[in-house]
Structure formats: C-alpha cells, structure tokens
Amino acid sequence: MRRKRALRRLVVDSATAYLWSVGHRHGAGRPCEEVLTLHRDGTRTRIVFREGPGRAVAGGYQPGGYVIDEHGNGLNLNQPGNVRALVDEAVRRGLLPGDGDLDGWELLPAAVVSRAAAATPEAPPDCPPGP
Fold first, then answer.
1. Whole-angstrom Cα distance, residue 102 to residue 45?
2. Per-residue pLDDT tens for 60-119?
3. Residues 125, 21, 2, 12: is their CA dihedral positive or negative?
C-alpha cells in the first residue's frame, strides 16, 4: 500500500518532470478538499478540489482521491494518467508552472475529455465521453 502523500514522479517530456502527491484536508468550518500537489524546480502548485454544491470529493462515499461534479465528470487523482491530463490542461491554459493554488474544478471537464479520448483513440478530437 502506498504511503499517504508520498511523492511520485511524473515525466511529461525529456525536459519536464513533476513530483506529485494527493491528499485530503479540511478544517474547522471549511469544506473537505482533495488536493493534488505538484512540485517542479522549487515551485509548488496545488490543484484544489473543494467540496460544494454539485461537487463531491472523497469523504466516505468515494475512494480516497476521487472527485466528481454534478455532470458526472470524475477522476481518481491517484492515477498518473489522470494527473497528467490535469497537468496538460493547466499548461495549455498557461497556469503551469506557477506557485499557488488552482481551482481543480475548472480543469476537470477538459481532463475528463482528454482521458476519454486517450481511451478511445478512434474518436475525433474534442469528442465528449459517452456513447
């Protein structure tokens, strides 16, 4: 079994690699959050998924690291391919590299579409998941 918050390595290309971990946090009066933390060249970026209306994070009903929105867009943040899809979308939007917190819910739909397209290579680009 993997240690909680153990750093893992994600190699994007020959010149770009991230160390990453997934954690769950909450505090007094704050909603639960799933947090994907990325480290690269001394910069730390957190992709945060805060629980709220229509937005669920792991907390007893889903496996740890799982996030899902009201549209059924969901990812397990413990899977490297899902992390890669989020990183690729953040880079595409010019958010990485960057120090600080990013709203994971803004990245989630595009990452889900990317993962679905990778799973069905014969599908046209930007095709939404599903039959």
1. 7
2. 555 578 999 999 999 999 999 999 999 999 999 999 988 899 999 999 999 999 888 777
3. positive
Question: What is the Cα–Cα distance from 40 to 125, expressed in whole angstroms?
Answer: 29
Distance CA 125, CA 54 (A): 27
Mean pLDDT of 23-49: 91
Tokens of 126: 């930007």
Task: Tell me phi and psi for residue 98, to 5 degrees.
Answer: -165, 150
The reported pTM is 0.84
Q: Which residue is listed with tokens 């954690």? A: 23
pLDDT at 126 over 90: no
Cβ–Cβ < 8 Å for 115, 75:
yes
Say if CB 54 and CB 83 are below 8 A apart: no
Domain boundaries, the chain: 8-119
Q: How many residues does the chain have?
A: 131
